């Protein structure tokens, strides 16, 4: 039996504060040295704790990194984006697209993505966890919103999961790949808005329901 990467949660306020302290130290070390270059000793020093204390909370470097991926999932997974059903579709697409690209095209988000990509082949469980909790979760939530708009007669989409992924990829065009491969600086809000507006027009041209359709 393979041991799971996580550890049992600790419930006291002191434990929670210590855990956050360790995670912040570990995040700084992983960002500076990468996964392979990081050591538990360096993480303990950065967090201001002893190695003994560190091992009380985390069994090894893998479990610590998994916990950080879990936190990044909450940040990058668009869990806080509010798909308001009664807001206009165009405004919702634009707001979602801007928020999505703003998250993945910033230094913190890019560092997490690069690190996961670098170790996913050797540690596929981490890659799968990140994909499921960040990318697939975002596509799924967006698809549920689109399904509601299809049911309301505003959109005509056969495969909402596909349409959701298409819109997200269109929002990335000319922005994400140059940034993630470090050939360009983070795009400005104005540049993001321009690309998202274009993606929105393309999406609605393909999927907006014709007036009177289905009546």
TrEMBL record:
Residues 39-58 bind DNA. Residues 16-76 form the HTH tetR-type domain. Transmembrane segments: none annotated. The keyword Ribosomal protein does not apply. The keyword Ribonucleoprotein does not apply. PROSITE patterns: HTH_TETR_1 (PS01081), HTH_TETR_2 (PS50977). InterPro entries: DNA-bd_HTH_TetR-type_CS, Homeodomain-like_sf, HTH-type_TetR-like_transc_reg, HTH_TetR, Tet_transcr_reg_TetR-rel_C_sf, TetR_C_Proteobacteria. It holds the Pfam family TetR_C_7. One of its GO terms (molecular function) is DNA-binding transcription factor activity. Coiled coil: none annotated. Keywords: DNA-binding, Transcription, Transcription regulation. PANTHER family: HTH-TYPE TRANSCRIPTIONAL DUAL REGULATOR CECR (PTHR30055:SF146), HTH-TYPE TRANSCRIPTIONAL REGULATOR RUTR (PTHR30055). This is TetR family transcriptional regulator.
């Amino acid at each position: 039996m393979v041991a799971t990467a996580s550890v049992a949660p600790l419930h006291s306020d002191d434990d929670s504060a210590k855990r956050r302290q360790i995670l912040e130290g570990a995040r700084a070390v992983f960002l500076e040295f990468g996964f392979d270059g990081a050591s538990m000793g360096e993480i303990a020093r950065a967090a201001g704790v002893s190695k003994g204390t560190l091992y009380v909370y985390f069994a090894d470097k893998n479990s610590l990194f998994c916990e950080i991926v879990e936190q990044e999932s909450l940040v990058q997974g668009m869990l806080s984006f509010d798909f308001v059903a009664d807001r206009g579709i165009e405004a919702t697409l634009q707001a979602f697209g801007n928020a999505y690209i703003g998250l993945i095209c910033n230094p913190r988000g890019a560092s997490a993505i690069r690190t996961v990509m670098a170790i996913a082949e050797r540690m596929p469980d981490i890659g799968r966890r990140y994909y499921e909790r960040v990318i697939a979760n975002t596509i799924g939530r967006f698809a549920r919103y689109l399904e509601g708009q299809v049911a309301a007669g505003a959109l005509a989409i056969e495969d909402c999961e596909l349409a959701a992924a298409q819109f997200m990829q269109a929002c990335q065009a000319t922005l994400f790949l140059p940034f993630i491969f470090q050939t360009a600086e983070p795009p400005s809000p104005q540049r993001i808005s321009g690309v998202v507006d274009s993606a929105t027009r393309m999406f609605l041209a393909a999927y907006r329901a014709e007036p009177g359709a289905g009546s």
